[in-house]
Amino acid sequence: MIGTWIVWLILFFGINQAAKAQESPPPNLDHIEVYLHTFDVGDMIYTNFGHTALRVKNTESGRDLIYNWGIFDFGDPLSFSLNYYQGNLIYKLGVYPAHQAMQRYRFEGRKVWQDKLNLNSDQKRILLNKLAWNALPENRDYLYQYFFDNCATRPRDFIDLAIGGRLAAATQEIPTNMTFRDMVRDGYRVNPWMDVILEVGMNSRIDRVVTRWESMFHPLYLREELQKINLDSGSLLGDGKLLIDAPDLEQPSYEVFKVLAAILLLPAILGLILIQRDSYRINQGKADRIGAWGMRLVGFAGVPLFFVGGVFGLLMPLNWIFSGHGDLHHNVNMMIFLPLDLVLVLPMKYLMFLGRPLQLGAKSYKIFRRYLILHLLLTLGMTISWAMGDVSQNLNRVAYLVPACLLLLGIMLNFGIQEKRGN
């Protein structure tokens, strides 16, 4: 999955020996057992979508191997990050003894389910031949794509090949009731801040409905779909058991965007009420204590909003230019979060720390006002277009932040900056 399993690199050094031990299937396959290993989600960013591996066990020889498509080289963190950002991240198939994997499973502290694949000898032979081919040094590497080529889609494709395409036939054209965005949201519920970053940063490409076949990029959905498949001999998955038990992760009971909206909107509203009570004196540059506290409340909400919004506004066009991930391009949130919002942090700091407007020269004052008006029009126009259905990107969570944004821009326009008066 996204950023999967750095720790498996420790096991990667045994890949050559283990792969050679399973280069070709033995002639008698009755004693070959194949299992699907499914890992529950974890609380780290790179474990939030779970994980998938295959286990191949020879009950006669005792050979017991794990096939894991989640191996990558983190030896150079800068190079790794750059390759990931550009969409050029290489993952590998790792093959190693099962007893090493069990130690790793227990260390991870996550639930692990083991389900037996009920394959006949011909199906096992197809799968084992494919695994042996994939384990060759020249075939181990693949270009990682978080939705379409990852640790879950690789075993999905191999299993589908072994059972004659029945999995694809049953799922490829059948839509789910989810979009990719829904699945990303579900995966990052336990990491609210990453949830916010991806919600704002990813574009309309992830708002199309996912087919059942595509949903299997997520390991838990892969297991769920395989449980529905029936072969001539019965269910594809059988003899399932909980291999490693662990406590369920605690899910936040709140919607992070609603909380952020409340944190921003409530002080802005209270601040506006206090400012209105002292608006005449503020416009004369002589705010009393009530007006000053109103401005401080507005600044308290405005500094984080416009700082974070400015960072988003700066990153989104850069992502469009430099990132290899198409899901980060042409993002309509660029109409709400603008790079120059970082400049608005300065007058907001004046309000928060000094309780008074920022005094500007005539030229700077006019530029600031024009920018604030432009920002108001862009944000309001984008929100109206989305509400009318003219924007395909899902903004139903980002929209919680729009009232606070509009209110703070309006307060800034009317009270947050002032033109310096002559002596």
UniProtKB/TrEMBL annotation:
Protein name as annotated:
Lnb N-terminal periplasmic domain-containing protein
Q: What top-level branch of life does the organism fall under? A: Bacteria
Which UniProt keywords are listed?
A: Membrane, Transmembrane, Transmembrane helix
User: Domain Lnb N-terminal periplasmic spans what residues?
Assistant: 28-176
Say if the entry is tagged with keyword Nuclease. Answer: no
Pfam families in the record: Lnb_N
Q: Give the residue spans that cross the bilayer.
A: 256-276, 297-322, 334-355, 367-386, 398-417
InterPro entries in UniProt:
Lnb_N
